[in-house]
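Our consortium's second objective concerns turning raw sequence data into structural hypotheses that experimental partners can test. To show how far this objective has progressed, the report includes one record in full. It was chosen at random from the queue rather than selected for favorable results. The single chain below, 101 residues long, was entered without modification.
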Amino acid sequence: GGGFTAFIPLILMFVIFYFLLIRPQQKKSKDHREMIGSLKKGDRIITSGGIHGIITGADENTLTLEIAEKVRVKLNRGNVAGLVKAAAAPPTPKEENKKSA
């Protein structure tokens, strides 16, 4: 019986390691795959290189991304870091004048 009890701390460390590191990473990876699969024309994204743009075309493996007016690039779906959430519109000059008055 003494041999098995020596392995209990090792097994316990592995279980803790699994729940703190491995499992959350698997969930994050699954969520990222689902997000990449659901990308469509018009979505605002950010690439893994930090480039922001709007999807103007998509096929099975690549996306066409408009990064400036009339500037489009193709990129692999795997290089999408995430969707950019729609931010509140910046205040118009009229709204800014009301605040300062």
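The partners drew two points from this record. Strands lie at 44-47, 52-58, 62-68, 71-76, 80-83. The mean pLDDT is 87. Both points have been shared with the crystallography group to help prioritize constructs.
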